[in-house]
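Now read this:
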Amino acid sequence: MMTAINEDNLFGIIIKGSLGLLTVLTLAGYALFSAKTGMGILAGGIVAIINFLWMRNVLQRILGLLPARPGQYAQIRFVARISVTGFCLYLILVSGWFSLAGLLVGLSVVVANIIALSIYGAVRAGG
């Protein structure tokens, strides 16, 4: 029995699908290429998923709590998120433990999952 995808469970499906895709790609990277590639995919996927969760959290706070200055609040959180993400990626790249190609594949996990869900939704709707 399949779970229907709707607005209430869409976020959970994106996260679960991204984690599943990350697992498959990480294992494929280890098996088909090298440990550095598998580690790069894993690191990139973790960064992408955490970034996605953080972005959702900020948007929920803006829409739910209505801070005094939502524009400024969003800008500060955006700069903080991008700065922390950039710093983490810098540390990953200079460590030498991760493959750049694997990192790029891992960073694409959430986007690939959203595209797949969009295509699924369009096909299911008959579009």
About this structure: The chain has a mean pLDDT of 89. Helices lie at 10-32, 35-65, 70-95, 100-107, 109-124. The chain is about 80% helix and 0% strand. Residues 10-119 form one domain.
